[in-house]
Amino acid sequence: MSTATPAASALVEATPALKIGPITLDAPVVLAPMAGITNTAFRRLCREYGAGLYVSEMITTRALVERNATTMRLITHHESETPRSIQLYGVDPATTEAAVRLLVEEDRADHIDLNFGCPVPKVTRKGGGAALPWKTGLFREIVTRAARAAGDVPLTVKMRKGIDADHLTFLDAGRIAEDAGVAAVALHARTAAEFYSGHADWSAIAALKEAVTSIPVLGNGDIWSAEDAVRMMAETGCDGVVVGRGCLGRPWLFGDLAAAFGAPGIRPDATLGYVAAAFRRHAELLVEFFEDEGRGCRDIRKHVAWYFKGYPVGGELRAALATASTLAEIDDLLGAMDLDAPYPGAAAEGQRGRAGTPKRPALPDRWLDTREMAGDDARTLADAELDTSGG
């Protein structure tokens, strides 16, 4: 049985390949960076099912320039990963430029993305993430210097609509990024204040597509199925989609997406046995990534609820999976399941991950008074590079 929706099953006739600079993607699909999720193991797993661009966890520019050991490990790709994509988060033009230059000169990436979409309070409170494009001069300098340092390696920008409904930045930021020479822009169609709550405003993606005309515009937000992706492109005219929470516990979504857009991809059969096999493969890849069976098995625990959402897997069995410390234990537990159980339908679909609730964004004092840098803004920004993610 397939999870394919009617719209996905019909396929999209002659969907053009997405070009990001010199990179051509068979399917116009990008995996969104997610902290603690989109490591090499998960990227490899998603790639095994479908086509697209698979972006790393967010890397802070300061840590990269300082060659932090953990950071250097996170930017290392498996030999099977092509093209290699890394997302950077920075607030200082010089540090961001240096980080981009390091990646290019040491041949560590084929694509670089800049994150201006993080809504996490401890980031926006320091003027970083989704708060930064409000300062148009700073945003322009960061993106311009980064694009120049990237040279022939395509550099893209991911952002949100703005800080809140009264302080939108995406149209200005999109035009600035286009003028700076980036290869594409991606919009998560929510404000920082909305976090991940409510519904993404796809009309903003359409507005950005009208404003930015010389480079691809990618849409992000509320893509839970291949049908959603097809509909977003049809409704907004965007050139591709960025998928985040929708693939949590569903790496095969990229197979469904590829097929929906007429590219090679594995269509899921959605039985519990199929899901269990994907979970086991994910655990195996995590063990390889961490080079530590115990650590890999601990890391897979956070994925248990996502993988088995809606399936007849009882609480006791789920709890046991969330405490397993070896692949052999995981195998025994998966073997105890009714692997012939069919796809449960709507119970397995819909939103995944925490949505949060709308909240007043945390910002530096007097941040909204002017769109240019002022007062203590520079000192505040110096503390903004934290190991967090979002967007």
Explain how this protein is built.
The protein is of the alpha/beta class and 391 residues long. The protein folds into two domains: 6-268 and 355-381, Aldolase class I (TIM Barrel, Alpha-Beta Barrel), CATH 3.20.20.70; 272-342, Non-ribosomal Peptide Synthetase Peptidyl Carrier Protein, Chain A (Orthogonal Bundle). It has 17 helices and twelve strands. Strand 8 and strand 9 form a beta hairpin.
CATH superfamily of the largest domain: Aldolase class I
State the CATH topology of the largest domain.
Answer: TIM Barrel
Main β sheet profile: 8 strands, parallel, barrel
Give the class-level CATH name of the largest domain: Alpha Beta
Give the overall average pLDDT.
Answer: 92
Strand order of the largest sheet: 3-4-5-6-7-10-11-12
Q: What does the overall shape look like?
A: globular
Number of H/I helices: 17
Gyration radius, in Å:
20 Å
**Total discrete domains:** 2
| Proper CATH architecture of the largest domain | Alpha-Beta Barrel
Count of β-strands: 12
Sheet/helix structural class: alpha/beta
* Estimated helix fraction: 25-40%
How much β-strand is present in the residues? 5-15%
Low-confidence stretches: 1-10
SSE order:
HEEEHEHHEHEHHEEEHEHEHEHHHHHHH
